[in-house]
């Protein structure tokens, strides 16, 4: 299905004066209108996302073990999926002139993944500020933690110079951070 309101998760129901309900997609901005009553649904903010990947042959070394350089690629997939689940994909940020350059990358390897295994990457927001966002990751297979890590991203413009996150994007990542903190 193409882009449209039917693809978005619903975060709020609005009751109008004539008792009709409108269902809203995710938005970091509150919906305010003198005729609306807003009721947030329980699962209003996505706090983490889970991405499943089947290990491909090209991702392994001669022993059939996933090469260490593949994990950051998987983390990128998880990060992109998280932003989409939060309601605004990274490509939408780029279209608005907001880029997130990787400033730091950390991965701690705990156990190997092998060819043709199904692994999951859980991704969440660890820190959120005007100039940087930190994402956390856990890579697992059947409940066994294979790796954990984090990436620190600096907010830059298309020219590569430091910028600040626009208010709607800041509200989006801070909302995910607050939901993650509340869930712990």
Protein architecture, described:
The chain has 3 helices and 8 strands, in the order E-E-E-E-H-H-E-E-E-E-H. It folds into 2 domains: 5-40, no CATH class; 48-183, Roll (Thiol Ester Dehydrase, Chain A), CATH 3.10.129. It is elongated, with a radius of gyration of 19 Å. 21% of the residues are buried. Strand 6 (118-128) and strand 7 (132-141) form a beta hairpin. Helix content is 21%, strand content 35%. It has a 5-stranded antiparallel β-sheet. Strands 2-1-3 form a 3-stranded antiparallel β-sheet, with no helix packed on it. It has 184 residues and is of the alpha+beta class.
Total helical elements = 3
Side-by-side strand order of the widest sheet:
4-6-7-8-5
- Calculate the terminal CA-CA distance, rounded to whole Å: 34 Å
CATH level-4 homologous superfamily of the largest domain? Hotdog Thioesterase
Q: What's the CATH topology label of the largest domain?
A: Thiol Ester Dehydrase, Chain A
Strand content: 25-35%
Structural class: alpha+beta
Order of helices and strands: EEEEHHEEEEH
pLDDT < 50 stretches: 1-44
Classify the helix fraction into a percent range: 10-25%
Summarize this structure briefly.
The protein is an alpha+beta fold. The chain is built from 3 helices and 8 strands, in the order E-E-E-E-H-H-E-E-E-E-H.
Give the arrangement of secondary structure elements.
Layout (H helix, E strand, L loop, with lengths): L11 E4 L5 E4 L12 E4 L7 E7 L15 H16 L4 H6 L3 E11 L8 E11 L3 E10 L2 E13 L10 H17 L1
Antiparallel strand pairs: 1-2, 1-3, 4-6, 5-8, 6-7, 7-8
């Amino acid at each position: 299905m193409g882009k449209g309101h039917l693809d978005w998760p619903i975060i709020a129901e609005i009751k109008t004066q004539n008792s009709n309900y409108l269902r809203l997609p995710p938005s970091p901005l509150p919906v305010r209108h003198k005729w609306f009553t807003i009721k947030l649904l329980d699962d209003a903010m996505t706090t983490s996302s889970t991405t499943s990947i089947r290990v491909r042959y090209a991702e392994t070394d001669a022993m059939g073990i996933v090469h260490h350089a593949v994990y950051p690629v998987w983390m990128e997939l998880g990060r992109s999926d998280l932003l989409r689940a939060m309601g605004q994909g990274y490509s939408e940020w780029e279209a608005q002139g907001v880029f997130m350059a990787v400033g730091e990358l950390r991965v701690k390897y705990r156990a190997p993944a092998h060819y043709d295994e199904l692994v999951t990457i859980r991704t969440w927001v660890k820190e959120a500020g005007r100039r940087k966002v930190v994402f956390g990751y856990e890579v697992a297979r059947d409940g066994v933690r294979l790796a954990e890590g984090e990436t620190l991203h600096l907010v830059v413009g298309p020219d590569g110079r430091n910028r600040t996150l626009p208010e709607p994007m800041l509200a989006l990542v801070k909302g995910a951070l607050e939901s993650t903190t509340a869930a712990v």
